[in-house]
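[recover] target loaded
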């Protein structure tokens, strides 16, 4: 699909959960992506550090069809961005600022750029990032740090990633996160061949948390 910056920001605000898939078993990783999608997770990222990640993206794209957003994570370099685009990714996610952001932007891939400091937030703006990944969120200071950042940057789209379990997800959303990015607390060992039944249970639990937060926010 032709995903634009505004589309990605709207999707993050609407769905509030970005699932991060990183696995050692490509077959299991594809099954994990499809299971997450079946359970209602609208935004899924496949990290390029997983085994045969590009083939996972290609296969998942074919199974999901052209209209379901699918991202490539850990996009560090120009070639990472180009390879992600060729594989069928609709958006890119980075752990930090680098050449991959500029190239993804040039390729019209919206970017969730990894930042930690106010200086990096300003730099990400200049790179054309659509949203900002606070990473690693727990080590950066958790929800209190995010809340502090919202003071000088009240309109930024923040997505905390790193150490976000169900309890932390609720706290980050309360602190002003647009969405949360969740890897192992959600995916567990599913992308390594683990139980999809357990993955479904975890997914439902996380969706209940973010949907509750969305409802509370709309009602307040």
């Amino acid at each position: 699909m032709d995903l634009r910056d505004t589309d990605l920001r709207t999707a993050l605000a609407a769905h509030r959960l970005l699932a991060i898939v990183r696995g050692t078993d490509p077959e299991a990783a594809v099954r994990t992506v499809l299971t997450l999608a079946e359970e209602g997770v609208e935004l899924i990222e496949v990290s390029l550090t997983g085994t045969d990640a590009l083939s996972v993206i290609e296969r998942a794209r074919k199974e999901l069809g052209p209209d379901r957003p699918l991202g490539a994570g850990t996009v560090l370099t120009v070639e990472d961005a180009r390879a992600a685009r060729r594989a069928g990714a609709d958006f890119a996610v980075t752990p930090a600022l680098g050449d991959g952001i500029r190239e993804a932007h040039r390729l019209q891939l919206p970017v969730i750029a990894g930042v930690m400091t106010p200086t990096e937030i300003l730099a990400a703006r200049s790179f054309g990032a659509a949203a900002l990944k606070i990473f690693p969120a727990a080590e950066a200071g958790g929800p209190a740090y995010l809340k502090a950042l919202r003071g000088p940057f009240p309109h930024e789209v923040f997505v905390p990633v790193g150490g976000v379990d169900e309890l932390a997800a609720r706290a980050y959303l309360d602190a002003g996160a647009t969405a949360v990015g969740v890897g192992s607390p959600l995916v567990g060992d599913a992308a390594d061949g683990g139980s999809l039944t357990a993955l479904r249970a975890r997914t439902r639990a996380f969706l209940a948390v973010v949907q509750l937060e969305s409802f509370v926010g709309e009602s307040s």
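[recover] notes: DSSP finds eleven helices and eight strands in the chain.
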